[in-house]
């Protein structure tokens, strides 16, 4: 491959990468990887107040469930606990 063909290929690749990065920057993502996984037990989730569950869902980028408190607790238990916990 000639040097001009290599230069052209690099220029096209750089331009395409710029478009991908721009598209990625334009998309808003609400998920942020937290530094720590929540360390609550099943009993903790069963006793947790609604405001704290909502805050936990937001912190981990999960949808805030509209519904009763029992449903939110069950969702948190399913989302954050392994089956053996």
From TrEMBL:
DUF7722 domain segment(s): 37-83
Coiled-coil region list: none
- What are the start and end residues of every segment in region (Disordered)? 1-26
The protein's name: DUF7722 domain-containing protein
Organism, scientific name: Dendrobium catenatum
